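Two proteins follow. First one:
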Amino acid sequence: MPPRILIADDSLNVRTALHQLLSHIHPAELLEAANGHEAVSKALEFSPEVVILDFVMPVTDGLTAARKILQQLPQTAIFICTMHWSQYLEEQATAIGVRQVISKAQSSLLIAAVEQFLNDQPPSADPASAPASPDTIAEDLPDPARP
């Protein structure tokens, strides 16, 4: 059975771009959430192996969502992908068990980190059939300066 990946971001464009990119690197069931509260609900319902959270989201922010998910599903790999990266956020996130905080400007690092995590898991599909990770995907994500 392919692993489940939950993508939580309040931007439909970002969710769509990440969904498309992740679907090309590893066979997975991809789920989406539009805010942190929905991410927690879907994580508890579907028990994904990987959760990708934006930090700034309505209802519940990514750090709070990560904390709630990890309390119930400590084996879940959580990555925060945000435009608001800071050393402080990195320290707070890793202290609660988030694997990595990555700037959306360096989103190719996110794809590589997720791919590495999935490839390190017991095989559920033929890893040799997964295409290579893209060199850069930042241009596929929407420009945050444009509404």
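Second one, unrelated to the first:
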Amino acid sequence: MGMEDRIELWERAGVIDTAAAARIRAFEAERARPLWLWSIAALGGLAIALGIVALIAANWATIPDGLKLAVHMALLIGAGALVWRARQQDQLWTGEIALIVFTALIVGGLGLQAQIYQLTGDIWRLFATWLVLAAPTLLLAGRTRVSGYLLAGVASLAVVSAAMAMDGSVATERLVQGLAAATPWILVAVSSLRADPFGQGLRKAGLAALLLFASFIHLTWAGEISSTDASRNLIRLLPVGLAVAAAIFGLHRRPVFGPALALPLLLGTAIAVALATVVPHPDAIIPRFIGALIFAAMWIWIAIAAARADWSGLYRLAVAALAIRLFLVYFELFGSQATTGLGLIVAGFLLIGLAWGTRRLFRVEAS
């Protein structure tokens, strides 16, 4: 529905009068931007950039190695100087864009040096080096959520690529894999050091990652976890436990939301991860049903805490997660058409009741 349709709807419903509608139209007209013109200009800029890249790529082999490194170093110094100058002059987005370019130039420079000096190695080493070089700059110079998301992305690439490159045959490799699993909680813990939008970006990225991780890890209940697997997973959970403690301590020191919400988000997700990975179980219907119950318990805890803390977005997310899982559980647990059909009918009534209860709750809050 467009803005004009909304204004007409509000007028007919008596929410606004004719004078208010005219003021809204005037305000929106003043804010209006010719999006199609900006799109054409952006397309032109992209064409120029791609053309320059194509010309350089076509003559890449003939460009001296020293010139390549010198140009890269000049670009790196220029981007760093622009970040510093923007901070001095309080130019927020100029500094942020320069910081993003600076971060990209770091990984580009690593690739360039590897090409020139014929360096080889696992891809995770590249990302780990990128993290070591870029993280301090982002922590010191980042000012917006964008740079917070960027740091979270670089950190996730580094630890996840390292974890995927290892088979977990030795304890040190399992600890690295545990570090990758602990990354969402680490991001939340680090975010408590900053109260600005950069810290908010780190925290939101961490919370989103841990909710996804805790939601998908319960699928291990659909497979077999042997006693050997469970004992190995205990080692992987050591970094997770330390990260959870650090995140809870950090949010206690700099309270962003109350403990009633911090506990289900940080501790509840960790408990769900631990139960799914350290409890031996066969590939059978009962463990799958237990996994579904643990998933539901985690999201119900989050939903109750979010409703009490007036976090409507998180509450809706919890309800959506419960609804999707409730719909899928019957395909997972029942095999025949009759039992699946009956299960889906029950699930449908439960979903309708869930939607009605949520609607009633928000109507009560609005009144």
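SUMMARY FIELD: The chain is about 80% helix and 0% strand. Residues 337-366 form the longest helix (30 residues).
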